[in-house]
Amino acid sequence: xxxxxxxxxxxxxxxxxxxxxxxxxxxxxxxxxxxxxxxxxxxxxxxxxxxxxxxxxxxxxxxxxxxxxxxxxxxxxxxxxxxxxxxxxxxxxxxxxxxxxxxxxxxxxxxxxxxxxxxxxxxxxxxxxxxxxxxxxxxxxxxxxxxxxxxxxxxxxxxxxxxxxxxxxxxxxxxxxxxxxxxxxxxxxxxxxxxxxxxxxxxxxxxxxxxxxxxxxxxxxxxxxxxxxxxxxxxxxxxxxxxxxxxxxxxxxxxxxxxxxxxxxxxxxxxxxxxxxxxxxxx
Length: 283
Prior knowledge:
Blueprint: E1 3-11, E2 20-25, H1 33-43, E3 48-52, E4 61-66, E5 71-72, H2 76-89, E6 98-103, E7 106-113, E8 116-120, E9 125-128, H3 132-139, E10 144-151, E11 155-160, H4 164-168, H5 174-184, E12 188-194, E13 202-208, E14 213-216, H6 220-232, E15 242-247, E16 255-262, E17 265-270, E18 272-281
Parallel strand pairs: 2-3, 4-6, 11-12, 13-15
Antiparallel strand pairs: 1-2, 1-18, 3-4, 4-5, 6-7, 7-8, 8-17, 9-10, 10-11, 12-13, 13-14, 15-16, 16-17
């Protein structure tokens, strides 16, 4: 019987069951791509990751990331959750407070700052989007300014709405979002609105039905894409050099996502907590 060590980690929270879970298979070596994809479909979480020995001497470990339907080159909450699991399991240790993760998007650096992990995000590129009336019909709400498709590995269509209350009340047309995502080859749509809750600068929601994820509870790459959108719109200082975003309240969660602008870089920060650990039987 084959079995592998496994953790399920809640990300962007210090309280179990309030963030976004990621399944982390700590012993990915020897698993085929087909086995990884089958396990990701079985866990039915937004992402499942597999920890592997690095192929580059510059990295501490390698990570492969899968949604229930496809492999991703990068994703934010799986990266932070997997780093938490790797540290907890003793697979890697920080060097001067830093970890280096190899993935399909390259070698990414994480800073270990107490209970918070900071991810040096991949560089973002943008593509114009002109079908605003169609997007508004799908969302059932007006958008502000000009939405952009932001590519940070995953590609998100990012748009700002009037405010956090409008964001929270959305009931988007999931089939229409699926069709749009497939046509544009994007992961989905991330929207945000300025908050007046006294806790956060913005509220965020991310919809990825084409990947089998109608709504991602708390999305790292979606939040990075919002930060990149603000930067490319000349609004990087709108909420300050560092701000807090909340996400997941409509799904019974309360994810706390930190964003920091550091020179030309965007850093994604968050905490994590292990909720389940044990082994998975493979055959």
